[in-house]
From TrEMBL:
Region forming the signal peptide: none
Superkingdom, natural source: Bacteria
One Pfam family this sequence matches: Amidase
UniProt GO molecular function: catalytic activity
Entry protein name: Amidase
Every Amidase domain range: 26-431
Amino acid sequence: MTTLLGCRSLVQEAAALRSGADDPADAVRRTCDRIDAVDPRLRAFVPEPGRRARLLAAARELAAAGPPGSAGRPALYGVPVGIKDIVHVDGLPTRAGSALPPEELAGPQAAVVDRLRAAGALIAGKTVTAEFAVTAPGPTRNPHNPAHTPGGSSSGSAAAVAAGMVPLAVGTQTVGSMIRPAAYCGVVGFKPSYGRIPLAGVIPNALSFDTLGCYATDVAGIALAAPVLCDGWRPTDGDGAADADRPGRPPVLGVPSGPYLERADDEARRAFEAQRTALAAAGYEVREVPVMADFAAIVEQLFTMNRYEVARAHAQWFARHAALYREQTTAAIREGRTIGDAAYETARERRAAFRERLAADGADAGIDLWITPAATGPAPADLTTTGTSIMCLPWSNAGLPSLSLPAGRAANGLPLGLQLVGRSGADEALLSWARGVERVLNGAAGATGAPTSER
């Protein structure tokens, strides 16, 4: 089993580099040593000949650009970051987990990479993705048990952070591609509100849903990275008070009872009951709210839009290279080609109505954050699948910000996650409130004898 033992968190790494107590070249050497030691088995990174030389040159350039000490050093000075391989990075090919010629997929560097580099980050390399961020798995293994999936499609980014290869990695979510791998790999995954991070320079899956996000080992790390990545970040007072219509206070937590929650397996539901009990004992008000009685129709609506948009995003590439696509991606594209414009527009109208209804249900019940299992259970022992995204689906459909927190272990020792979901645009409040929930979960894990997060 690969653990985080002995690896520094993002906050620790960034503080040491900004203060001058550590040097970017030393951070590069540690990162490359860890990748060399761990990645041949986990395969979280896309292989890159000359990675060490490239990163050392970038580290020397960074160190030469400014004075020693913390004065003026940006937030992520010298921090190595993994980038999902559907995100364009100057100097590195984009393959998107596919067999297509990289020159077909080439494009200008993504805006999110521009932001990371402006904040002083070093790009450790491309992380493995499911083919075109759909469902055909990449070669990455779960760091806690390599016989199990790490999830998808941001598999490499989640596994790279979980295995201590990098303290920060970027991924994307269309339906469940950030939150599920975070839960399976036992790290914190953050999917902001739809549109909060610009998608320029990212190969699309389904543009009505695609959202960039990031992984770290704790909420503090996400809170350090989020202002760099997200548009218009507003500082909070630590209790969600950046949200103007909500005073700084503990959030009211909502449990979405009904057919949605019933999709989690028995073990995940038992763990979730223990988590909500621990939160209630810690003083959080937890309200059960019946919602999404028509959950099957919500699922159908999302996949109508998703498959339609996948087919159109790949129309030209698929026409030229259909034989190079894997079976799962081909099936998604072919299904999307059967969906007409009228059906798509109907699905769009239904989604708009769903979003309004979900927001009204939460407001009527006085809910600040929804809490749910982050996945239907622990990572499956099946490397031919990335698992199911069903626990993330309605929140992605509504474009809401979400976060997965490590929340104990299943009977087989694999991680479980708790998903927190905020209101659209209230990402700052979500992260602020998540710190308190994280403390409760860590305390509950220790009290029950379950392993706490090893970092």
